[in-house]
């Protein structure tokens, strides 16, 4: 009986690894972003466009470009929308996130301020920019430009909303920080967001529209 359970456990791990591998290939990391490009977010509240400038944070722009062209953010939740602060989003597929996270994004200095509409990766320490991003819904400069913790300083901006900021403003914000308190559980069971926070808005697709 124990041997059968062990065997099935090994089979399950292999299947999960294969599933993650099908959604990530190491060769994708060789795809560098153009010097500038614009992407369109189609969401449950409408569309908005973000223009990215690689020179502001080359490593972040490259990773974002790699992820968007491989549909990393399709279906992602705006799981943290705090009025007068940020709209944060990211995928809840743990296998996919972990596959990307193994390949660290080098830390970079803040060259552009976290003004209203600015895009940056969230991070919790050194080389932790890998999956979750936020849009500043008000100017958070100089606070988010200079705050220092866990060995890093600030949040490097690499893009700005150029059209549809009203859509970003309309994202459901009634839960504020509440989903963040369950984020570890969410990664184990993505249905928690639908069950506990049914009004959250989602990203339908992110597409490159100009480069």
Describe this structure in words.
The model is unreliable at 1-21 (pLDDT under 50). The protein has helices at residues 2-22, 58-69, 94-101, 143-146, 165-170, 183-188, 191-196, and strands at residues 36-43, 46-53, 77-82, 86-90, 118-121, 133-136, 148-149, 152-153, 157-163, 203-210. 30% of the residues lie in helices and 26% in strands. The longest helix has 21 residues, at 2-22. Strands 3-4-6-5-9-2-1-10 form an 8-stranded antiparallel β-sheet. A two-stranded antiparallel ribbon has the order 7-8. The chain has 7 helices and 10 strands. The protein has one domain (33-210): Cyclophilin-like (Cyclophilin), CATH 2.40.100.10. By secondary structure, the protein is of the alpha+beta class. Strand 7 and strand 8 (152-153) form a beta hairpin.
User: Which strand-content bin applies to the residues?
Assistant: 25-35%
| Low-pLDDT windows of residues | 1-21
Order of helices and strands: HEEHEEHEEHEEEHHHE
Helix/strand-derived category reads alpha+beta
Q: Taking strands numbered 1, 2, ... along the chain, how are they ordered across the largest sheet?
A: 3-4-6-5-9-2-1-10
Radius of gyration, rounded? 18 Å
Distinct helical segment count: 7
Largest sheet: 8 strands, antiparallel
Helix content: 25-40%
How many DSSP E strands? 10
Count of individual domains: 1
